[in-house]
Amino acid sequence: MKMLHASCLCGAVKLRLPDSFDYMGNCHCGECRKFSGSDYASVGGLDGDKVEVMQGGDAIARFQKSEETRLAFCRHCGSSLFSQKLSSGKINLRLGILDDVPSQQPGFHIFVGSKAPWHRIGDDCPQFETRPSV
Ligand SMILES: [Zn+2]
Ligand SMILES: [Zn+2]
C-alpha cells in the first residue's frame, strides 16, 4: 500500500496514512470555511486508526466543535489538520496538508447551499445542498 505523508505549515506535526480514502470531497459549509480560513475545505475520509502520528503528537490541539465532532490543528502554526467524528472514529483529513499526491480526487461538493457567495465551483462533480441523502 502506497503511503501518503502530511504535515502542518511549521512542520511540527507529521502524519502518515494509506493512499486509500473512503471518499474525497469538498465541503462548503460555513464551519469548514471558518476552520480552514478558505472558501471551502477539500477533505478525504478514512478510519482514524489508519492515520499515524509520526511526529508532533503533543503539538496537535483539538477544538470540540460539537458533541460529535472534534477539530484538530497545530498549536504552533494553526494549520487545520483534520476533523474527527467521535462516534465512528472517522477522520476527515484536510487535503491541503498532504505532501504527496493522492491517487484519488475530490468527487463531490456538499453543503453547496451555504457556500461562500463569491466562490464559483469550476468542475462538474455532483453538488448537494447539504449532505447526500443515503
Ligand atoms: Zn505547525
Ligand atoms: Zn464542512
Automatic annotation (TrEMBL):
Which domain of life does this protein belong to?
A: Bacteria
What PROSITE patterns does this protein's entry cite?
Answer: CENP_V_GFA
- What keywords appear on the UniProt entry? Hydrolase, Lyase, Metal-binding, Zinc
Q: Which Gene3D superfamilies match?
A: glutathione-dependent formaldehyde- activating enzyme (gfa) (3.90.1590.10)
Please indicate if the UniProt record lists Transmembrane as a keyword.
no
Citing just one GO molecular function, the answer is:
metal ion binding
Q: Which residues form the CENP-V/GFA domain?
A: 4-119
Q: Which family does it belong to?
A: Belongs to the Gfa family.
Q: What is the name attached to this protein's record?
A: ADP-ribosylglycohydrolase
Upper classification of the organism: Bacteria, Pseudomonadati, Pseudomonadota, Gammaproteobacteria, Aeromonadales
